[in-house]
Amino acid sequence: MAVKRTNPKRRVVRNPKSAGPMPRILMDQTMADVTKLLESRSFESIDEANAYLQGLLAGGGTIPHPEPETPLEQAQELIYEAHEARSVKKRTELARQALTISPDCADAYILLAEQEPALDKRLDLLEQGIAAGQRAIGVDQFAKWEGSFWGVTATRPYMRACAGVGELAWMLGQRTRAIELFTRMLLLNPSDNQGVRYMLTNCLLEEGDDTGLAKLLDQYKDDAAANWAYSKSLLRFRILGDTARSKTALAKAISANSFIPPYLLGNKPMPKQLPDTIGFGDESEATEYVAFAIRAWQQTPGALDWLRRNVAD
Q1: Rounded distance, CA 268 to CA 307, Å?
Q2: CA–CA dist 248, 263 (Å, integer)
Q3: Which of 211, 220, 157 is CA-nearest to residue 186?
Q4: Do residues 94 and 81 touch, judged by C-beta distance below 8 A?
């Protein structure tokens, strides 16, 4: 598959070099500022805290940005600056500078990994990012925050590093490592703000773990994304064959995104680069799905012929 992924972080995130939505990591900066601001004051209720924030933002106001107090906060400031920098050289310099201030800055390793062309070296940098994130969070906080990890801004660099390692490890054939990481991430953060479950579905399909996939699909049974619908239909075909139930699942999948079958069947060429933003039910979602799911369909005997017949009907 000759498709290039321009941004290793998934969904509705644009490359910082382009005009458009704010990169997600810069949104984290705002969340960190809000958290620090609220922690510095005493509120009787959540409503009172919300009213205070709304008052600050009224009339075009902004959330005040506090000065960093710890080496890690100072390093993270440089990473935010790096994500707004225009040149690769500047971003790399700032990431390296951040690590001299705090070796626990996981986002610095992630940024350096994004600039590294050698996949094995990129993986090593991301693994260092995981280790840095673990040190920054601490053992006690891991236990305290498990189940709601993404809701704590301080955990996000670690989770980003995990997602990067999982995806790259899978590409390099380290399949057990990838599945273990993705599974662990969903335990830490079942709400799955990063879309890890979509990568894991394709991993389980390729590995032939139909039981594990069925449990995962049931865990997020209300998911409306095309990935979920097509994964359900492929699993039904693998277990039941060409039956009314599998056909019903496929019909729901095609209804969720009708752009996918032409790409899966090779009737339409895939783009050279995956989109920076992913919508629902559109071509961006279709190409994103097919880029990572095509092997599962190819490895399932008769699946593509079954899809072709049902699309024709």
Answers
A1: 15
A2: 21
A3: 220
A4: yes
